[in-house]
Amino acid sequence: MLQAAPAKVNLFLHVTGRRADGYHLLDSLVVFLAAADSLHWAEAPALSLSLDGPEGGALRAEPDNLVLRAARLLAEATGVSPRGFLRLDKHLPVASGIGGGSADAAAALRLLCRAWNVAVPPDAMAALALRLGADVPVCLASRPARMEGVGELLGPAPALPPGLGMVLANPRVALATPAVFRARAGGFSPRAALPPGWADAAAMARDLSACRNDLEAPAIGLCPAVGEVLAALRALPGCLLARMSGSGATCFALLPDAAAATAAATLLPPEWWRWGGGLYETPA
Ligand SMILES: C[C@](O)(CO)[C@H](O)COP(=O)(O)OP(=O)(O)OC[C@H]1O[C@@H](n2ccc(N)nc2=O)[C@H](O)[C@@H]1O
Ligand SMILES: Nc1ncnc2c1ncn2[C@@H]1O[C@H](COP(=O)(O)OP(=O)(O)OP(=O)(O)O)[C@@H](O)[C@H]1O
Fold first, then answer.
1. Alpha helices in the chain (DSSP H)
2. Catalysed reaction(s) (predicted)?
3. Within its chain, how far is the Cα of 222 from the centroid?
4. What does pTM read for this prediction?
5. Distance (Å, rounded) from C-alpha 248 to C-alpha 99?
6. Nearest CA-CA partner of 273 in 172, 167, 165
7. 94 CB less than 6 Å from ligand 1?
8. Binding site annotation covers 100?
9. How far apart are CA 219 and CA 221, in angstroms?
């Protein structure tokens, strides 16, 4: 059994406030890309996880993996004993602002519901997801969404133009999300005004340029290479908009089509993690 765990990109990220517990209130437009980890499950009496893929090495030293935390939480919530051999094929860089860990945790929840033949009502599932991380609820459906609250309030995204292309680039510096939020200075941004949809990528880029990622400046302060990545993305042929995703350090460029994005990614420095393609096609 297999479940894809697609990367998320925050097309903009406004920090609109702060809760009493220190978590920040956000307004963000989130999309998912064909760039993905994949999680595999096979029958086995005990629960285990093996790590594979080009980015798996970074996680081997970690005492706990979000996939196993998700499995234990689901087992506890449904009263089953956790079982199965899980293999995580890791392609997304760790701690990079494209929610790889969150996508893996969401994929584990979905895959194990099938594998263990358990059903969790959507509201309870969303609450389980939020316990694993603020980005996990939006990753459960892996479809474009307007994300608010600390990440738990999900609404429809404006209708997106077909065939969008996206280039991702990461300078191979891990950025810890709490450190980036802590480094943020200044006040809060308003909720963005968005239209019901965009007819083409240029109109979408024009409206998105009026928004921002409020974590971009603090991330550049902690990791100046983010500034270099943004400059390189802006110089790509066909780039309509370049911005950092999440808490960084991965940045994206929006292009009118996926083929142009795939070609443009090859122009970036080979020592960076880079990817070009289209949006994730959510299965019906
Ligand atoms: C920045 C984003 O990537 C935007 O999509 C997410 O909000 C981060 O989501 P995540 O990585 O799943 O975050 P979590 O693992 O829940 O939180 C990590 C840390 O980030 C900070 N955090 C996270 C989410 C949020 N709305 N406010 C915060 O202040 C908190 O310090 C928290 O301890
Ligand atoms: N399967 C996993 N994949 C990635 N990170 C994991 C995983 N399991 C545990 N982690 C831990 O979670 C941390 C955050 O990982 P993740 O890749 O989701 O960060 P991120 O890309 O900054 O996410 P976000 O955009 O949601 O802030 C990592 O630093 C790592 O310590």
1. 66-78, 100-115, 122-132, 136-141, 177-183, 201-209, 216-222, 225-234, 258-265
2. 4-CDP-2-C-methyl-D-erythritol + ATP = 4-CDP-2-C-methyl-D-erythritol 2-phosphate + ADP + H(+)
3. 20
4. 0.97
5. 10
6. 172
7. no
8. yes
9. 5
The correct answer on CATH 3.30.160.60 for the domain covering 158-278 is no
pLDDT digits (tens, 9 = 90+) for 219-264: 999 999 999 999 999 999 999 999 999 999 999 999 999 999 999 9
Ordered by start, the domain boundaries in the chain are: 2-155, 158-278
**Is the C-beta atom of 276 inside 6 A of ligand 1?**
no
Substitution site in 31, 94, 177 for ligand 1 pocket (most atoms within 8 Å of beta carbon): 177
Catalytic residue among 27, 135, 207, 214: 135
Tell me the two tokens of residue 165: 């292309």
Contact 15, 184 (CB under 8 A): yes
pLDDT tens-place string over residues 164-173: 999 999 999 9
SS3 3: strand
Instruction: Look up the ipTM and state it.
Output: 0.95
